[in-house]
Amino acid sequence: MEFSAKQIAEYIQGVIVGDENATVHTFAKIEEGIPGALSFLSNPKYTHYIYDTQSSIVLVNKDFEPEHEIKATLIKVDNAYESLAKLMTLYEMSQPKKQGIDPLASIASNAKIGKDVYIGPFACIEEGAIIGDNTYIHPHVTVGCNAKVGNNTILYPHVTIYHDCRIGNNCILHAGSVVGADGFGFAPSPEGYEKIPQIGIAILEDDVEIGANTCIDRATMGATIIHKGTKLDNLVQIAHNVEVGSHTVMASQAGVAGSAKIGEWCMFGGQVGVAGHIKVGDHVTVGAQSGIPGNTKSGSTLMGYPAIDPKQFARSAAIYKKLPDMYTELGRLQKEIEELKKQLNN
């Protein structure tokens, strides 16, 4: 499917600089541009590529002013990256999608299946499960007994939704993710560790996306809740009875221990760890590999372990590198002091 610069500019409310009849049928990074491709420029580090790119159309910010001649047609917009996202969403929506239930799928007789649903081969929909309209279930997905999946949701291969859990509308669960496995609950005893039954559920509200192999455990009692609009990367662990506020994002390998409460619009870098039974406020930003051992105020920006102000962490890190030399110097000074004491005593 081809789109002209004029059509694209009208859709994203941009201004054309060049040939309004230039057409594209694919996307490409600006440094890998080919004829017929649409690229974008938002990071100044990539500006030099725009003068040699072979892409037919390039999205740029309105304040971009070229220093040399550019062969490509430009479309100036308020935010090139956001405009690209809109176009890629439109492109994805235009792709044909499968519908219907594959004969190799296993669906319980009392499961409720909505309209225009696709269920792929070897998917299993168990007793009492409910699947909403326009939902897309890839092969080898399991939706457990009495679980509910909303409308316009995508479950990629090998996603597992345990019994009684609830997935909202417009959610995306990537391959291998698990919602509703038992929380890590064990009581120590003289004979070892006695398992504590996990009788709660896990709930994903609308517009949530979770990455491949991410796990969201069911609650011991009550519910583990991922609120509306939250995005979790691959390999994220959310423990039992955790509550993650709306529109929070977590990068790969972040982990949240049991019963922690995370606020709205937080941003966690990769491998951030959050201790259990604490509260993290709204709009908190945490750098990669940081550890949060206690309650955190809203609006904080933190880094390190334990997580502290990033400037303090940077100064501490600079000192840490000098510790071996400082240790050697301290030893030398101690020897000098001991020698001076001996001389004074004599």
Automatic annotation (TrEMBL):
The protein's annotated pathway: Bacterial outer membrane biogenesis; LPS lipid A biosynthesis
Keywords: Acyltransferase, Lipid A biosynthesis, Lipid biosynthesis, Lipid metabolism, Repeat, Transferase
The EC number(s) this enzyme carries: 2.3.1.191
Gene3D superfamilies: Hexapeptide repeat proteins, MurE/MurF, N-terminal domain
Superkingdom classification of source: Bacteria
Enzyme class: transferase
Cross-referenced CDD domains: LbH_LpxD
Catalytic machinery residues: H240
Start and end residues of each UDP-3-O-[3-hydroxymyristoyl] glucosamine N-acyltransferase non-repeat region domain: 22-90
Catalytic activity from the UniProt record: a UDP-3-O-[(3R)-3-hydroxyacyl]-alpha-D-glucosamine + a (3R)-hydroxyacyl-[ACP] = a UDP-2-N,3-O-bis[(3R)-3-hydroxyacyl]-alpha-D-glucosamine + holo-[ACP] + H(+)
UniProt GO MF annotations: N-acyltransferase activity; UDP-3-O-[(3R)-3-hydroxyacyl]-glucosamine N-acyltransferase activity
BP GO terms, sorted: lipid A biosynthetic process
GO cellular component terms, A-Z: membrane
Database matches in Pfam families: Hexapep (PF00132), Hexapep_2 (PF14602), LpxD (PF04613)
Assigned protein family: Belongs to the transferase hexapeptide repeat family. LpxD subfamily.
Function: Catalyzes the N-acylation of UDP-3-O-acylglucosamine using 3-hydroxyacyl-ACP as the acyl donor. Is involved in the biosynthesis of lipid A, a phosphorylated glycolipid that anchors the lipopolysaccharide to the outer membrane of the cell.
Quaternary state and interactors: Homotrimer.
Protein name in UniProt: UDP-3-O-acylglucosamine N-acyltransferase
Organism: Phocaeicola coprophilus DSM 18228 = JCM 13818
Protein encoded by which gene: lpxD
